[in-house]
Specification:
Layout: E1 2-8, H1 15-25, E2 30-33, H2 41-45, E3 48-63, H3 73-77, E4 83-84, E5 87-88, H4 98-102, E6 108-123, E7 126-133, H5 140-157, E8 162-169, H6 173-179, E9 184-189, H7 193-207, E10 212-218, H8 224-236, E11 241-245, H9 249-257, H10 270-284
Parallel strand pairs: 1-8, 1-9, 2-7, 2-8, 9-10, 10-11
Antiparallel strand pairs: 3-6, 4-5, 6-7
The structure holds iron/sulfur cluster (2 copies).
One iron/sulfur cluster binds at residues 61, 78, 80, 82-83, 88, 93-99.
Pfam family, one: CbiA
Organism: Desulforamulus ferrireducens
Domain 4Fe-4S ferredoxin-type: 59-83, 84-113
Amino acid sequence: MKELTIISGKGGTGKTSILGAFATLAGKSVICDCDVDAANLHILLQPNIKETHDFYGEKKAEIVPELCTNCGKCEELCQFQAIQQGQINPYACEGCAVCYHVCPAGAVNIKPHLSGQWYISETKWGPMVHAKLGIAQGNSGLLVNMVRKKAREIAREQSLPLIISDGPPGIGCPVISSLAGTDMALIVTEPTVSGIHDLERIVKVAAGFGCVSAVCINKYNLDEYNCRYIEDLAERLQVPVIGRIPYDLTVTEAVLQGIPVTTLGKGDAQGPIQELWQQVGNLLGVR
Ligand code: SF4
Ligand code: SF4
């Protein structure tokens, strides 16, 4: 079994559209949405949810009013200003448990907090594991880890040779979780100043995991000067550019329709996406 993770240093490069297209080209694979903070792959793949599971990612404090003597000690010592007038703000509470330890009345409990949900679904192109983290909830790295673990289990159970994961943007904890143990990182960038800046950072992060890395320049023809700059940068960073996809309004049309662009069967991006998929298959050793 091989794992491909599609990442981007910044959001909005078209990573999810490319993954949606790959899902249709791969034959049956396990599809995994690791962008749990802002999941949107389901918009393109329209999964039919089969199982829903709760995710308890954090702990939060709770005050038992009947036991509280209003001494104010917890409010004074909470470093996150999460307690005001005897009430805990769950969005501000970091679950550090200082209040629990200092409370002289034993009035504070620290409890697991429901932070989101994860799902096992079916799509036309194979099983999908995805998740939704609640607003202002933390520990997305742990949730990504759970989603990937489930995707591997399903791949083993159904003897599927490939897992395709949509990684989160950025270089933080959920990205690290998305890359750990993957066979290949496909980095999707775009020819903008922020695209160039973030490409360098994400290439260095991916290099730390020892997986095969390659770059795809999406919307390359919007700025050919920046596109050449990215090609030079990639050469300096010793990572190959294996795809150049032109700006194509058909991709937007597909997003608006909620379908992978490949199912439209038209537009300038079709051929380059298929060539990119061939290159990925060569590097991963899957067909
Ligand atoms: S657990 Fe920590 S952050 Fe939360 S209310 Fe108590 S002291 Fe504040
Ligand atoms: S430290 Fe305990 S008793 Fe004092 S205000 Fe906080 S919860 Fe109430």
